[in-house]
Every structure is written in C-alpha cells, then in structure tokens.
C-alpha cells in the first residue's frame, strides 16, 4: 500500500502502513526536501543539547583553577615562603611540605587561564547560536510546508464528500478541525520535536559528564532524582484533570448563561432575571471549588519539588565533600561538574515531558484528520467517471426507491416510492411535512443514493452518469436560498462559469430582479452580505432564480420557493417562476396549494410513498390526500377559491428579532452605508478600551484581603530562596580552600543543615502562596461573573440587538473575561512580590560582595532577561500569530461548509477549493518567515548566557589576581545576578496576561457601568392596585436602535378597552410585532406614547407592567428543564403549586398529552424544547402564559408555524385563554381573527382602517381586498 499515490493537487503522500508508527503517520506529507531539513535540524538539536554539559567541563576546570590559586595565596601570606618553579619553597630553600607530606603547587597565572576559559565559552556560545538557529528554522519551515499541504488535501477531501457525510459531521466541528486540530499537528511536528531532541540530548550528555567525573556521586544523585521526575509527572496529570473538571463544571454555568441570553426576550417578558442569576450562580460554585483545588495542588507540588531539590543539594554536597576531603577521589571542580551535570540532566528530562503531551495531542488530531483524508467518498463529485448523454429529454423516473438519511437510519423517509415525471411538464409534489417531498429532489440531484431501487433520467440509472454533468443540467431554487458573501453579479455567475454581463442582465430581467438591482447605488456590484443578510427574502429569492436561470437548465427543481415570502414579494417571484418553467421539466414542491393549481400533474405524498397523481380537478374528485389538504387550508374562509394566506410558513426567530428582518429596497443601500460606517467607529471604540485601573479590580477583591496578605508573605519567602541558594552554593566552594580539614568539615555540615531548613521552609511557603491566591482569585472570578451576568440581564432589549452583544459573544465574555481578570490580582501579585524580593535580595548580596563585578554582569542583564522572555514566549508558542493569518482562509472554508448543499447543487466545489488554496498562500509565507525570525530569536536567547559567563568570569579572574577578591565571592555574585536575571525574564513573561487582564476588566466594568435605557429595578416607576388592562397607542413613532433610518411605526393610533380583543393585520414589516414590543416595554417609542390604564408606559414600573402581561409568540422559547418547570416560569414572583400547573395545562389542552408521557410533568423538554413538536411547545407556552394569570394577553402569530391539525387544538386553547382578558392578536391567517372586537389593518407603521370583521367587509376597503384576493396592501 506504500506506493506513492498522486492525489489531485499533485502532492505526493504516503498512505500510513500502520497507525502506531508515529513518524510514518504524522509525517506522511513530508517530501524528500522536508525530510532532509528535518534530519539536519535534528542533528543540530543533538549538538545543541550537548553544549550545556560541555560548558560544565569548562566550569569544573575553572573552579579547580580558582581553588588552587586561593590555596597558593593563603600559603604565601606567610612571608617566609616563596614560589619557585611552580612549587612553594621556604625562604631558606627547602621545599615546603603540608601535613600529608605533599608539595604545594604555585604560580597559577590566573588571568591567562581565565582568558583561555573565556575563549572556550565564546566558542561554545557561537556554536550554539548557529546550531540552535538551524534546529528551529529547519523544523518550523518543514512543518509549515507539510501543514500547508495537509490543509489543502484535507479541505479538498472534505469538499469531495457526499452530503450524507455532512449530515453526520457538524459544520462547526469540521471548522474547528481545520483550525485547531491542524494547529495541534503543527505544534507536534514543528519546534516541539527539535526541542524534545535537544532536551533528551542534554539529559544523556549530562549523565555522561557526571559518570566520567565521578560515578559514586552520580549514583547518589540519581537515586534521588526519580522523586523529582515523579512529582513533575503527577503535577502535570493532576493539573490537566482538575482543569478538565473546572471547565466541565463551568460549562454547566455557561450553558445556563447561553440559554438565558439567547432567549432574553422570554426571560424579560416573564420577569425571570433574578431567578436566572441565581441559577447561574449556583452552577458557578462548583467551578470555584475545582479552581481552588487546582491552585492548592499546584502549590503543594511546587513546594514538594523545591523541597526535594534542596534536600538533594544538601545530600550531594555533604557526600561530595566527603569524597573531596576524605578519599580525595574528586577535585572541587569535578564535584561541581558531576552535581550540575546530573541536576541539568534531570531538569531537562522533566522539561521534555510537555513535548510528549504535544506529540500525543498532535497524533490524536492527526488520526482524525487522516481518517477523513483516507476516507473514500461514496459519491465523488470530482470524479471523471460516468457517461454524459448527448441529448437529454428530461424524463425522470423513480423505481421502487427506499431511502433513509445516514444520520437517522431508524426513520424510513421513502418507502418503495415509484413515480414518473414526464419531460417538459410541470409536476407538483404536495403532502404533509416529513412525507419525503424534498428528499426525492435530493436523490435526483444525487446528494444521496437510494438504499434500494433506482432513479433514472431518460432511462439511464443516474448512478452511471457523470455527477458534475448531471448537476449542470439541474437548476434549483430552494426555500431558503443561499447567497455567498460577494457581489450580486458574482452570485449569479456561480450558476455558470464564463458568462458575460449581458447574460447576467438577461437572467435578472427574466427573474424580475433587474429593476430592484438597478435601483441599488452599486447596482450589480452591491455586496449581499454574509449569507445574503443584507437582502430581503424576496430579493434573495429572485437572485437565486437568476442564478438558476443562467445555467439554462434542462430540469428545474423548485423546493417551496415562495413559502417564506409575504404576499407582495410572492406574487412577483411566482411570476418569475412561471416564466422560467416553460419548456423545461419542472418539479415544484409547495405548501401553499394556490401556487400549484396550474401544474400539469400533481403528485400527492404520504409516508414516503406517492399515493396519487393527476391534475387539480381530478385529485379534488378523488378526495384523497390533496383534497384534505385543500379543504383544511380553506376552512373558515368565506371565499374558498382564493386560499392565499394558507400555511404561511414563516421561519423567523423567537419573538422574531424584527430588528434584523428584511429591509425595503430603496433604503437598503443607505442602511448598508450607515451600518458599515457605524460598525467601523464602534469596532474602533471597542478596540480602544482603556485598561482598567488595578485599584478598581482590587476593590472587587477586597473581601479576600487576608488571603492576599498570606499569599504575598509566602511569595516573599519564595523569592528570597534563590539568593540564599547563591550564598550557600558559593560558601561550599569557599570551604574547599580552607587549609584546616576539621574546620572544613564543620563548615560543610553547617551549610548542609541550612539547605535542609531552606527546603522545609520553601515547601510551606509555596503551598501557602498557591492556596491563598487560588482562593482569592476564584472568589473574584465568581463574583465578577455573577455581577457581569446580572448587569447583562439588566440591559434593555435594544442592547441585545447589537451584533456585538449576541448571546455567543456575551457568554464567551463571561467565561473568558472574568477568569482573565484573575490574572491581574492573585497570581500576578504573587509573581511580582516573588520577583521583586528575588531581584532585590540578589542585588543587595551582589553589591555587598563586589560592586565592580556586579556592574559588569549587569550589562548582560537586559539580554539575559530578554532571553528569559523568549523562553517563556516559546513555551506558549507562536500559534496565536498563525490564527490571525488563517482567518481569511477560515472564512472561505466556513462559508463553503455551511452551504455545502448549494455548492454541490451548482457543482462549484472546485472553485471553492481553489479559492481556499489561494487564501493559504499568505499564512504559508508568513509561517516560513516566522521560522527564520523564530530561529534567530531562539539562537540569540540560547547563546547570551555563554557570553555573559565569558565576560564576567574573565573580569572576575582579573579582580581576584589584582584586587585580592576572594574567589568564592566571584561565584556568589555571578550566581546571584544570573539567577535574578532569569527570574526577571520569567516575571516579565507574565506581563501579557497582565495587560490582557486589565483590558478584560475594563470591558467588564464598561458593562457594569452602563446605565440601561429602560430600568427594570423594582423601585423605579409607579404601580397601582386594580390593573384594568386598557391600552392606548397615541401617535407612536419608532425606529429600531440598530437601524435608525427605517421608520417602523409612523404615528400609530389605536386603543383597546379592558376585556376586548384587538387584531392587527398587514403585510410583513408594517410594525405589528413592534407595537407588541413597545407594550412589553422592550423598547420605548421615539415620539408619542403608549398609555396603560391612562398612564404613560415610560412612567410605569417595568416588572409590575410585565407581570400583568402574558405573551405567546410564533416560535415559543422553552428552557432546558422539565415541562412543569417551564410552566412555572410563567410566574417567577412566587412558587407555583402543581394544582395551578394542572389547571393551566387543562386550559391549554395540554394536560391529556402530558399524562401520556412516561415521566408526565417531569419530562425534560430538551434544549430549546427540541424533544417536542411545535404544537406541543406552543401549548406549553400557552399554559405558561395562563399560569401568570395576566390581565393582558399578547398572541404574536401564535399559530402560523403549525400544520393544520395542531393548529386547531392550539387555536381552541387560545380562545379559552382569551376569556375575560384584554387581548392583542397578530395574525397572518385571517380566518383566526374574524371574531375579534376590533380588527386594525396596518400599513407602513400606521393603522389605515379599523372596525369589526363584518363592518370592514361591508366597507369594501383594504381588509375586504385582503380577504377576497390576497392582494398585498400597498
């Protein structure tokens, strides 16, 4: 299987032979060049790893030199001795012998020696600079090339998949795979590998240096080092597991927040704000506990680690000094070389483990990605196979087709369906929803293959035909047409490549779209917005029709092409469709039967079978499925021939965010302009948030001050550990130069005991710091999340219309901002205190012992600090920069995947693949550039320390020889300063978090400080006892805050007396729902007023007003809890008893249905009520409104989205609920409102006539016209 296969983009890649071989698997996209680069990079990493142990050899020799020099100086203090031929003589010429009868060496030329050592250091440093540069640059750029290839192959493969595969894989998941998973692979195969090799090589060479120097000591140190390794491993595991737990427990709270914010209108209408804030806070408690546990455990482990390390020091120095003094096996230099060699090895082994983590997640990600790449699509749209017929008549036949969707194999959609569609005729499919009408169309487009039976075109099984060619014959207009976010002309061009502008204009004329396009300022170059969001439904539909027309298709599929439009647009679009049908085989699916009267044949569907076929009049006589549908649709109408307002399938959001509904053509362009300008300024405003003052953040953390104090104390102790270590370490070196052995032993034992004391102290202080700051930080996070959430629920509804305050954006803000703020307090303070004490103590020590040397080293400090910052940066990786560059490609991929059906229908997969590959150029180039920069920075940061050592030890040698500085002070100063320098670097690496924390805090505070335009507090506004429910609108003018230039209400005057029913009718967009939202006080009118019981609404207490109103909307929003709890939501002021629930449910015709369920009222309704049908959800919503026992009932198209049977039970439930209440009804179907006391006909935001049904019919005005003809109200 391992032969090279060419896939379409001409990339060589090998099929993996088995899933376990990491290399073969993860690196299967590597070409020869990449492999060479990776091998060379790997070698460089090996050499780089050996540099530090090499340096130790130099360091050891240097120590010996210093010790010998010190001994010589001490001996020569006695004026009777002198130095001859490198041996010490008495002045009288006899050789001086020590107590052990050995001669003493002298004449150490310390400066020459030091110069030599300095050269060694510089040499090693330059070597390191080169190898580390190549190590990083090669690996990162090789990885960039492979990842680029991988992305292209993956995307192409995904676009090749059949539609059934997309049903089983969510688009969001695929998008994250394209970004996150491939990034994980990138992390695994880029710098991580080389750093891993480098660390392992340091580990190996470190031990080698140790064993060569002195095996006994090495073994003793090795015996202890597993303790360090185990602790590091355990800590990583514990942290990962706890983080998982913490995230999981926060996810619960996040889900609550998301649910509440996405249904904010329902929450506001039922006054559930406080209840929801409580529910959110309850879920936060758990996350807080896990966070504290995590902090504590990290503190414990860190303390344990340091404790072990210091004990290890004590042991090694004690035993090592024995070997030096008693058995003379080691020289002081070798002692240091062995000890540090082993220590370095152990440390690097520990640091290599995070790389393994990256490999593991990379491999897991690679498995998912490569499984997709290796999957052979069942229907391959790129394949060249299959016949292309010379002549196409257009006869379509289904032979005994059985089919179920791959995502839901248990539901049979088509059951042995057979039918024939004649060429050149228009055939209409009718039937209840779910009977398989749209499915037949998808089978014919070959989105799916039937499980049994076959579909033929002119007698050929379509599975034998070429897919691209077959799809090029078909034009399709869907219910919700998908437009791509480019210009109108480009969208039409998608229909057929290489068409001229004349063709496009011709097509738009035929589609009745030419006039509205020409009126737009940019005409054909107008951008349609994402998903066509800037166009109204009718405009999108007509552009889609033009796109289908330009293909000049033989076969036309219309899937409910007009169902989502209002009457006016529908007439225009219908006319365009009728023009289009001539001379083509057409299949039309419709819910509104009026649109298919004149079809050549009508096929009735039921339960996945075609049960009847014939013309309109034949089927009416048969009295089958079609007849029932027609009669149901005409019921209750005075005029049966016109069934215009039947089944108005409006797909709108909950309480219909009208603010985002359709704009009329003329204002469209201005709105686009104002919107984009406004967004620009607002985006800028959002970017330039002033970072919040730390004082204010700390104020929120005030109650935790004891914790913060204890934490800071712990941090201060931790900070002073490093300088103490420098003192003790140099002291040990100093003891070797003491002549008297007993004295020497005594001193060494004393120092070892000190090491033990430091060990124990650091254990406790780390634990303290970890626990105290975790506690204060988590409490702060929880507090901020809660107040943030409460502040969100306090805002007026208009605030949520702003796209920047979409539920998704707000929930992420709660999740991330609040936890980021924690970074500015607890741990940050700890970090600062720690670094400050460390640096302060180090400098005091250094300046005290030798200010000259300190100044020399200080020149290198900024560089060492910088290298510390780089090290820290590298660990976080450069992944974030890549994300920015990937955004453009991400747009293409997400748009392509979201609209995969449309793309497949237009056979445009390849153009999206090309566009994606083009967008990848930029990130690829930047990745290669980054490899070089990253390599340079890495090399620089690695070699700085060598240079620093070279300079400072050379100068130290000079000071020792010319100024008689004790050599142990040289070591003390250098160790102290270097250590504090690295600490500085580490501390500064925390600053990005700090800056982020401040801006995050600022965003939160901006939210907390915002004063809502409509206050929902219980204190503001007036309440009164006998609420009657008399409502009056006086000259109301209103525009939505997000679209100030579209006048929605224009001098609305209408009133309703207590207990009356007022019905609003009118075409969509005339302001019916808006008036309801003004009454709920989601918004306030710009001019005029709404009077409630004679009081202006803006003076009324909001919670009081809303408690008197019950609302049932077209798409009721249910919460993810039981049926009982959903009904109880109707009254949030007190707890609702089960009796009241039963009572309300009975009134809503719901009780009997609930009793049939296994869990009765405890049945969970699922997210957004997904477990229930629409009729059932609607009745729960009615019961919820009844439980409120409101004085005013608002019904916003409460039945328009139901099928005819559920509609009747819901309608009777509503009639029951209306008794004795003031009621405002909005309806698209006129049959439902004939009994209303007042019917108000609206147009363009004003009432044009109002009266009862009979009087309006007698008037023969707009209402009469509406009922009899269904003509749009102009």
Q: How would you describe this protein?
A:
With 1274 residues, the chain is of the alpha/beta class. 60% of the residues lie in helices and 10% in strands. The protein has a 6-stranded mixed β-sheet. Strands 20-21-22-17-23-24 form a 6-stranded mixed β-sheet, with helices on both faces. The protein has a 4-stranded antiparallel β-sheet with strand order 6-5-8-9, with helices on one face. It is elongated and about 145 Å long. The protein starts with a strand and ends in a 5-residue tail after the last helix. Residues 1-22 and 635-686 have low confidence and may be disordered.
Shape: elongated
The strand line-up of the biggest sheet is 10-11-12-7-13-14
Q: What is the averaged pLDDT score?
A: 76
Structural class of the secondary elements?
Answer: alpha/beta
Helix content: 55-70%
Give me the number of helical elements: 41
Strand content of the residues, in percent? 5-15%
Strand element count: 24
Low-confidence stretches: 1-22, 635-686
Rg calculated over all Cα atoms: 40 Å
User: Main sheet, how many strands, which sense, barrel?
Assistant: 6 strands, mixed
Distance between the termini: 70 Å
Q: How would you summarize what this structure contains?
A:
This protein has 1274 residues and is α/β, with parallel strands linked by helices. Helices cover 60% and strands 10% of the residues.
Please give a handful of descriptors for the protein shown.
60% helix; 1274 residues; disordered N terminus; single chain; 41 helices; 6-stranded mixed sheet; alpha/beta
């Amino acid at each position: 299987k391992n032969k090279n296969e060419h896939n379409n983009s001409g990339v060589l890649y090998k099929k993996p032979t088995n899933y376990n071989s990491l290399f073969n698997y993860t690196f299967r996209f590597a070409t020869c060049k990449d492999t060479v680069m990776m091998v060379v990079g790997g070698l460089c990493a090996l050499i780089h790893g050996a540099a530090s142990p090499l340096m130790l050899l130099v360091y050891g020799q240097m120590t010996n030199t210093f010790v010998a020099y010190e001994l010589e100086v001490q001996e020569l203090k006695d004026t009777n001795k002198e130095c001859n031929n490198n041996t010490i003589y008495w002045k009288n010429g006899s050789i001086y012998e020590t107590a052990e009868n050995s001669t003493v060496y002298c004449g150490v030329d310390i400066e020459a020696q030091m110069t030599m050592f300095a050269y060694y250091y510089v040499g090693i440093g330059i070597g390191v600079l080169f190898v580390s540069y190549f190590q990083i640059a090669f690996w990162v750029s090789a990885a960039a090339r492979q990842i680029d290839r991988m992305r292209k192959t993956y995307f192409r493969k995904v676009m090749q998949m059949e539609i059934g595969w997309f049903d089983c894989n969510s688009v969001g998941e695929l998008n994250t795979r394209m970004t996150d998973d491939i990034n994980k692979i990138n992390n695994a195969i880029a710098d991580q590998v080389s750093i891993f090799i480098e660390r392992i090589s340091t580990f190996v060479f470190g031990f080698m240096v140790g064993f060569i120097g002195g095996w006994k000591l090495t073994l003793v140190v090795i015996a202890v080092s597993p303790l360090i390794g185990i602790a590091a491993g355990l800590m990583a595991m514990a942290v990962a597991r706890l983080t998982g737990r913490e995230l999981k427990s926060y996810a619960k709270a996040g889900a609550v927040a998301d649910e509440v914010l996405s249904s904010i209108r329902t929450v506001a209408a039922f006054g559930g704000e406080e209840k929801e804030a409580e529910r959110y806070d309850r879920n936060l408690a758990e996350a807080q506990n896990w966070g504290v546990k995590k902090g504590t455990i990290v503190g414990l482990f860190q303390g344990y680690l340091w404790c072990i390390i210091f004990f290890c020091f004590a042991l090694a120095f004690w035993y090592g000094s024995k070997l030096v003094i008693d058995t003379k096996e080691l020289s002081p230099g070798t002692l240091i070389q062995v000890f540090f060699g082993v220590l370095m090895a152990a440390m690097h082994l520990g640091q290599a483990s995070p790389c393994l983590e990256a490999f593991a997640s990379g491999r897991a990600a690679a498995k998912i990605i490569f499984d997709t790449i290796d999957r052979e699509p069942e229907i391959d749209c790129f394949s060249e196979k299959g016949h292309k017929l010379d002549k196409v008549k257009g006869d379509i036949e289904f032979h005994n087709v059985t089919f179920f969707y791959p995502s839901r194999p248990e539901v049979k959609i088509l059951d042995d369906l057979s039918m024939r569609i004649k060429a050149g005729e228009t055939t209409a499919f009718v039937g209840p929803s779910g009977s398989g009408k749209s499915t037949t169309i998808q089978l014919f487009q070959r989105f799916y293959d039937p499980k049994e039976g076959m579909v033929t075109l002119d007698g050929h099984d379509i599975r034998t035909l070429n897919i691209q060619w077959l799809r090029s014959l078909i034009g399709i207009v869907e219910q919700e047409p998908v437009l791509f976010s480019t210009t109108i002309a480009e969208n039409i061009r998608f229909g057929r490549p290489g068409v001229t502008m004349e063709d496009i204009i011709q097509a738009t004329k035929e589609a009745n779209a030419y006039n509205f396009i020409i009126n737009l300022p940019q005409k054909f170059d107008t951008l349609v917005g994402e998903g066509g969001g800037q166009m109204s439904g009718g405009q999108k539909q007509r552009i889609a029709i033009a796109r289908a027309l330009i293909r000049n298709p033989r076969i036309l599929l219309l899937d409910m092409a007009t169902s989502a439009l209002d009457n006016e647009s529908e007439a225009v679009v219908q006319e365009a469709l009728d023009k289009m049908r001539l001379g083509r085989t057409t299949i039309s699916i419709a819910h509104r039967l009026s649109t298919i009267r004149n079809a050549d044949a009508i096929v009735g569907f039921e339960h996945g079978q075609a049960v009847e076929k014939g013309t309109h009049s034949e089927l009416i006589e048969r009295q089958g499925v079609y007849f029932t549908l027609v009669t149901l649709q005409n019921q209750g109408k005075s005029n049966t021939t016109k069934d215009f307002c039947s089944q108005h399938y409006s797909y709108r959001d909950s309480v219909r965010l009208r603010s985002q509904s359709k704009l009329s053509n003329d204002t469209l362009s201005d709105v686009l302009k104002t919107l984009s300008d406004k967004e620009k300024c607002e985006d800028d405003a959002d970017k330039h948030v002033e970072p919040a003052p730390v004082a204010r953040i700390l104020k929120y953390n005030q109650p935790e001050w004891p914790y913060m104090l204890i934490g800071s104390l712990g941090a201060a102790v931790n900070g002073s550990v490093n300088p103490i270590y420098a003192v003790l370490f140099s002291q040990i070196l100093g003891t070797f130069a003491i002549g008297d052995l007993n004295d020497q032993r005594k001193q060494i034992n004393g120092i070892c005991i000190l090491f033990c004391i430091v060990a124990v102290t650091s254990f406790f202080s780390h634990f303290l710091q970890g626990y105290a700051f975790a506690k204060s930080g988590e409490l702060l996070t929880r507090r901020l999340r809660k107040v943030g959430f409460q502040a969100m629920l306090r805002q007026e509804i208009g605030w949520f219309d702003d796209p920047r305050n979409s539920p998704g954006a707000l929930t992420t803000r709660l999740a991330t901002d609040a936890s980021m703020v924690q970074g500015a307090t607890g741990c940050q303070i700890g970090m600062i205190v720690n670094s400050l004490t460390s640096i302060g103590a180090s400098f005091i020590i250094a300046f005290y012992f030798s200010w000259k040397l300190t100044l020399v080293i200080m020149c290198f400090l900024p560089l060492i600090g910088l290298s510390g910052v780089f090290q820290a940066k590298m660990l976080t990786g450069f992944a974030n920069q890549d994300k920015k560059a990937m955004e453009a490609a991400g747009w293409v991929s997400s748009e392509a995947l979201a609209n995969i059906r449309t793309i497949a229908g237009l056979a445009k997969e390849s153009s999206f693949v090309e566009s994606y590959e083009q967008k990848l150029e930029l990130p690829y180039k930047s990745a290669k550039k980054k490899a070089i920069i990253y390599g340079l920075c890495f090399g620089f940061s690695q070699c700085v320390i060598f240079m620093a050592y070279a300079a400072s030890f050379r100068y130290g040698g000079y000071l020792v020889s010319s100024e008689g500085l004790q050599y142990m002070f040289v070591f003390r100063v250098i160790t102290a300063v270097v250590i504090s320098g690295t600490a500085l670097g580490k501390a500064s690496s925390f600053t990005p978090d700090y800056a982020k924390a401040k801006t995050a805090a600022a965003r939160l505070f901006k939210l907390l400080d915002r004063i809502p335009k409509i206050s929902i507090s219980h204190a503001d506004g007036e309440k009164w006892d006998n609420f009657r429910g008399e409502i009056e609108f006086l000259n109301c003018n209103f525009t939505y805050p997000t679209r100030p230039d579209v006048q929605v209400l224009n001098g609305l005057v209408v009133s309703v007396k207590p207990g009356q029913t007022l019905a609003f009718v009118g075409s969509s967009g005339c302001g019916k729902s808006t008036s309801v939202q003004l009454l709920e006080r989601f918004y306030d009118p710009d001019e005029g007023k709404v009077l409630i019981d004679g009081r202006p609404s803006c003076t009324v207490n909001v919670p009081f007003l809303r408690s008197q109103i019950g609302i049932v909307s077209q798409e009721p929003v249910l919460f993810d809890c039981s049926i009982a709890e959903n009904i109880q939501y109707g009254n949030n002021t007190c707890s609702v008893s089960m009796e009241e629930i039963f009572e309300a449910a009975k009134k809503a015709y719901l009780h009997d249905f609930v009793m049939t369920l296994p869990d009765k009222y405890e049945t969970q309704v699922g997210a957004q009520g997904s477990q229930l049908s629409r009729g059932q959800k609607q009745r729960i919503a009615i019961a919820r409104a009844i439980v409120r026992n409101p004085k005013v009932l608002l019904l916003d198209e409460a039945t328009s989205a139901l099928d005819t049977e559920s509609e009747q039970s819901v309608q009777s439930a509503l009639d029951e609920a209306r008794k004795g209440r003031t009621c405002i009804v909005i309806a698209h179907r006129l049959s439902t409102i004939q009994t209303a006391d007042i019917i108000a006909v609206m147009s363009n935001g004003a009432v044009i006539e109002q009266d009862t049904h009979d009087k309006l019919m007698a008037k023969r005005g707009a209402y009469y016209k509406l009922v009899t003809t269904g003509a749009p109200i102009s």
